[in-house]
Specification:
The structure is a homodimer of 329-residue chains. Chain A is an alpha/beta fold and 329 residues long. Helices cover 49% and strands 17% of the residues of chain A. The interface between A and B is large, with 60 and 60 residues.
Chain lengths: 329, 329
Amino acid sequence: MKIAVDAMGGDKAPAEIIKGAVLAVQKYSCEIVLVGDKEKIRNMLDKESDGKNFPITIKHADEVINMGEHPADAVRCKKNSSIVVATKMVRDGECDAVLSAGSTGAAVAAAQLILKRIHGIGRPAIATPIPTPCGTTLLLDSGANVDSRPEHLIQSGIMGSLYAEHVLKIKNPLVALLNIGEEETKGNEQAKETYQLLKNLSTINFAGNAEGRDIPRGKFDVVICDGFVGNVVLKFGEGLALTIMELLTEELTANGGAKLLGKELIAKTFMNMSKRLDVSENGGAPLLGVNGYCVISHGSSDAKAICSAIGVTKNYVDSKIFERIKAAL
Amino acid sequence: MKIAVDAMGGDKAPAEIIKGAVLAVQKYSCEIVLVGDKEKIRNMLDKESDGKNFPITIKHADEVINMGEHPADAVRCKKNSSIVVATKMVRDGECDAVLSAGSTGAAVAAAQLILKRIHGIGRPAIATPIPTPCGTTLLLDSGANVDSRPEHLIQSGIMGSLYAEHVLKIKNPLVALLNIGEEETKGNEQAKETYQLLKNLSTINFAGNAEGRDIPRGKFDVVICDGFVGNVVLKFGEGLALTIMELLTEELTANGGAKLLGKELIAKTFMNMSKRLDVSENGGAPLLGVNGYCVISHGSSDAKAICSAIGVTKNYVDSKIFERIKAAL
């Protein structure tokens, strides 16, 4: 298996991306193609590999799409950008999958324009695994598209259910629709219409409406929503977790608990906590619905997160659910 | 000042509502009318007041609107329900404000049908104060209406800004639009259109787009969104906070920190934490945009939360911002 990794995408690119690739090839049996500035990558890679011979090659791409750029325009204009070149390698059969921690919009646009959507899919969706006390809840769409119609949400439900079953290995996954109440009459027009369609869909295990709190509580295996709502919810969670850690530190400092625990134990506890909550620690999020395997990592990914995302990518390709999605539609 | 309190609304009604009213009249200078089942309220009130003479009266209402009922239908049919009777007391000038911890939908429907919307307001909005490390961020709409158009979001911005300035006492409040990115080209059609309207509005201090994480980080004073998104985000926060507490307890138990702290200190720390995060501890959320003062409390409110919400209601009425909103439109 050969994975094209966008070496130039992400806040810590290329250094941490390259380190992550080196970790991954030692952990998983796969080949990696690092896509980006050949010279920079070669220098860093030589340092990292320390004379050892790893199954990592380099594909040159001299442009980079930055966070502020309009995704589709940038993909069309910067034909030699790392994400475009990496995605084309998948289209041309040179690689089995593409992974990027760069601009999510650019990765989605590249996948849509170069790999194209699967026949029958109106909008691809990013499926983000959310850690819960009892495992994982898959939230999709978490930001690929922001003006979804009910039929797009249905397609997300079908794709998410297949991903949960065949990649996350959850048997007969419970699929719910994100809404503002449990009752089927609740919600905006989009949610009410989608509910009726989901109710009559026999191919997934539809369990009704999910409320916001059900996501981090792990009540369902798959929760479907519009990409606007999914993106807001994910980022809200990031901010809230940080705020809670800060307030807790204040409380423990004020009540003497911090002294009892000691700096080291507090740091360790919070670090472990953050890891368990951190989406990027749980690897990448697949972009479901395009003709090829594309995985998106958090922009802040470090080497460990990239390594973990490469593991996710490998499982994803191994699952062959891409063929199942095509068959299901 | 006289406040009509829906004694029958909320998970812990009527007991905790009555206790909360007794606490409030001792803390704030106001009169309270408890609306609901006269006999039940009288018995409980006698027990609570312990022979003392508090400025609390009872207004009989023999019906209750339950959580599962269709809000507008229930308000129309149950003319003698506690929320309908309480809201009518405001309309008829017998009380200055109404407070309910019952069905949010019913309280909103009663306010819309009985008090009517302020001229120029298309949709009222619930403004929920979110605790942040540096104070409070006002999120609106957090669930009154779920299919908002850009003009409704603009109206929310104007009302939220006035509330932040005159009730929360924030000078020149920073108002932001909830979106999936900072750039003005980001977001769904609703967000993009709303951005352009806000940019050209001179009456508020528009600070651009807010991302989900900016809410709990306290980057802005007022964040505007659709009621669907606001409701999902608030409930997601509730669930996530609970999950974080559980995971932290697990971590501390596993690494020995729990033993060092002792059960009592852990309980105290988490309780204080929860209080600082808990929306209901920060009192009620005003329903802005109707012809009268209406405040909504969390369904799980206990006596302390009700007392705090009565304090919020009092400040809200004192501010006279209702007149300011009418003047601003």
